[in-house]
Every structure is written in C-alpha cells, then in structure tokens.
Amino acid sequence: MAFCKYCGAQIPEGGVCNCPQAQAEAAGNVSQPAPAVQPAPVAPQPAPAAPQPAPVGQQPVPAVQPVPMYQPYPGNPAGNGFFGKAFAQFGSFFTKPVSLITDSVEGKIPFEATLVLGGLYAVVVWIMLMIVGFVSGAGPMSIIWSLLAAIVVCGFRVGIAALISVFAKGAGITFKKSLAVCLTTSIPATICWFLYGTLGLAAGFLSGFFFAAALLISLVYYVMFISTYVKDANKVFLFAIIIAGVLVIANLAMGGYGSFIAGRAAARSLSSYGDLLKSLF
User: Given CA atoms 27, 32, 34, 35 in this order, what sign does their dihedral have?
Assistant: First the structure.
C-alpha cells in the first residue's frame, strides 16, 4: 500500500489520490507533451579545393591513360585487298560462274580487282608463249615475240569490251562495266592458257585443245553477257556472229604466230648447223 504525499490518505499501488493536489498533478503529467528529440548537429563538410593554376610558362601535365598490352594491327585483314578479292573470283568461277558477269556490272567486284585479273591473264599468256618459243628452239627473241603476241591477245579482249558497250548502251552498260566483265571472265581463259603452256608441251595436240577451249569459253561468256542485258534477240544473234568471226581471226592469228615461231626456230637451227659445218671444214 502507498500513501498520498499531499493528504496522507492511503491509496493502492500505482493509484492516484482523490485530493485536489494529486488530481491536478496527474492532469498536468498527461497534457504535457514529451520533449522533441533534437537531431545531432552535422559537422560542416570542407569545400573542395580549387585547382591550382600552373605556373607561368609551364604546361599542365596530361593524365596518363593506361595502354593495353595488345594492340591489333591497323592494316586490312588478309583477303580484303584488291589482290585478295581478285583471286577469290577463281573460286566463284567454279561455284557460281554466271555471277561473275552480274557482280562485275553491279560493282560487287571492285574495278581494281578486275584489272588485277586482266594483268594476270596477260602475264600468263606472255609466259606460256615464251616457254613454247624457247622449247621450240626460237631462242631468246621469244621473249619479245611472245610479249607482242600477248599484247595482241589482250587487245582482242579490250576491243570486244568496246563492242559490247556499243550493243548494250541502252541497258546502261558503259565501257568500264563491259571491260570489268571481260577482264573478270578471263579467269577460265587464264587457266586454259596455263594448261596450254604446261600440258601442251607434254602432248602437242593438247596445246591446240586448250587454246580452242579458251576461245570457246570466252565466246560463251560474251554471249551470256550481252543476252543478260540486251533483250533484242536480233541484236544478240548479230553480236554472236561478230564475236565468232573475231575469235576465228584470233585463231588464225595464233596459227600464224605458231608458224612464225617454227620458222624462226628452223632458221636458227640451220644457222647453227651452218656454223658447225664451217668450223669443221
């Protein structure tokens, strides 16, 4: 039991006396709000230091960037150059031979790559004719004669490109596009000329076979080219007749060149034989 501190009356534990003083004290404790909790003071943050200007006449030092351990070579990947794209067309000839025409016209094969193919064609023709000349006994002059013959052979292809550009002018085929096709489609002729100068030496009849194959494949490509872009059947037929005549002339010219080389070889042999006789007698 407990007693009131004001009047001394006995009150239960935790109870409030009925006297005015005890009642006033109890009412004051209920109505008085609890003191608000004051937030802890935050210490002021120091302001960032301003950058110090570099001394007069002294350049600021740039920040050093980390250098990677491996740096890729900046050049083009292998096969992306003109030579790589040119030699890639040899595979296209065996897998999709017709696309050589359309890809050259549409520019999918760079014109520089077609020039590489044309140059390769000229070099192969020159070397093969030179080999045949040396083997036939025509002597060192075969280098000059074979070079002139190769220039004539390549001139036929350029002339045919000009003829195609005239026939297909209405289809938007310019001389440059026509030349690109004629140089790209020289791939099978290049292969035939290579076989002409290699296997043809082993068996003489093979040289004539591969030369005829080069002419025939070229004729097929030229007619396919003109028929793809020229829808006039009469024009296509006329073009085929003209090209066939040109290739016949090329065949006769090649026969004349062979006779010339054989004659020079025979003359050289007779001259050598005459010198031998003079030395003996």
Answer: negative
CA distances from 268 to 23, 133, 178, 258, 273 (A): 151, 12, 43, 15, 9
Taking a C-beta distance cutoff of 8 angstroms, is the pair 132, 200 a contact? yes
Whether 192 is covered by a domain: the verdict is yes
- Residue for token pair 């020159």: 126
Position of tokens 């036929």? 156
Positive or negative CA dihedral for 162, 165, 167, 169?
negative
Per the CB < 8 A criterion, the answer to whether 87 and 163 are in contact is no
Q: Name the 3-class secondary structure at 8.
A: coil
CA distances, 256 to each of 66, 100, 251, 252 (Å): 72, 32, 9, 6
In 3-state terms, the chain is what percent helix, strand and coil (to 5)?
65, 0, 30
In the chain, how many domains are there? 1
> Cα(20)–Cα(23) distance, rounded to whole angstroms?
5
Q: Report d(CA 153, CA 158) in Å as an integer.
A: 9
In-domain check, residue 155: yes
7-59: pLDDT as tens digits: 777 777 777 777 877 777 777 665 445 555 555 555 566 655 555 655 555 55
pTM of the predicted protein model: 0.64
237 within domain boundaries: yes
Q: Are 206 and 128 in contact (CB under 8 A)?
A: no
Q: Please answer whether residues 266 and 138 qualify as being in contact, where contact means their C-beta atoms are separated by less than 8 angstroms.
A: no
Higher pLDDT, 167 or 275: 167
Q: Which domain holds residue 126?
A: 96-280
Quick: pLDDT tens for 173-231: 999 999 999 999 999 999 998 988 888 667 666 777 888 888 899 889 999 999 999 98
